[in-house]
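Annotated sample (chain length 353).
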Amino acid sequence: MEKLGWGVLGSARIARKKVMPALMGASTGRLVALASRDLARAEAGLAEALAEAAQRGIYPDQRPMACGSYEELLANPQVDAVYLPLPNSEHVAWAIRALEAGKHVLLEKPGVKSGEEALQLQAAASRYPKLLVSEGLMFRHHPQWDLALNWIRDGRIGALRSVQIQFSFYSEDPTNIRNRKETGGGALLDLGCYAIAASRLIFGAEASALRAVQTFNQAGVDVQTRAEMRFDPLAGAEAASRAFWSTDIRAAYFQRLDISGTEGRIFMERPFSPVFHEGVRPVLFGQAGNLVLDPEPLRADHFTLQADRFSLAVQGRGLLVPEDGLPDWAIQAHYMDAVRQSANADTWVALLP
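Output written by the structure step:
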């Protein structure tokens, strides 16, 4: 089957360093073009991505094109799908433009900033039922997650009791889009979306309620967001299970994940952003804290796996995530709304039934 032709709107660092090399190495797709609002910037971004790919031993059969405008890329008939790493504030507008141009859309996380934006994008996407819109929460595609989830489903840690997540990095640069309210910056949108998605994935269910606390700087950006998510009792559990997570953009870089059950625990050192050439793995502990399994490190490029699974979904040969009713990126948006509502009112907020 012919490979899916990818176009990238915007030369963000994650596109140059991570996604574009992954697209060049994907088995089911190929990178057709990179677009920026300035041709020189597009050419420079493309050169950087090609150099990054070469370091991994990836050399595309045909050199991708550089486009000096987003419109030029969207008009290219060789582009079947668009990856969109623009600032969060621009996701919905350009996703709709891409759909109108007949392109599938992969949004960098978070797909949308709020439930209101989700409704806007849902309305547009409903007019193009043959086009796929998905959110790039790439960690879900790494094999370490497959292994950890299999342990949970096989009962290796018993009934789920709690999940604890920490994710942080330090940045005070006022020009960085992560530190600007108008571009959709802040800990919740940049890091909290990972914690929400991971909690939902681990429990295999939606939370019934959450309570959150947010700390804002003088510019109105949440520099720290923490939450507790309550999940109704699962099979074998005596009481409701909970996910506790903390995200911070004013703390040293750190990430970790602990999953505790009645009979054991799973630990991940780099659950969200493993380096593609460095192996990572979950570690399984027993009820007494004894080491049960410490597997060989798993080496994989989760960005490439994400691209391949997206292509298979476009071709009707696979699903990205189970979606009944609302698309997953819309559900994520409702959780983020609930976090804001809870933090503002200092109370528990009920979630989706």
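Annotation: The longest helix spans residues 328-345.
Annotation: The first strand starts at residue 4 and ends at 9.
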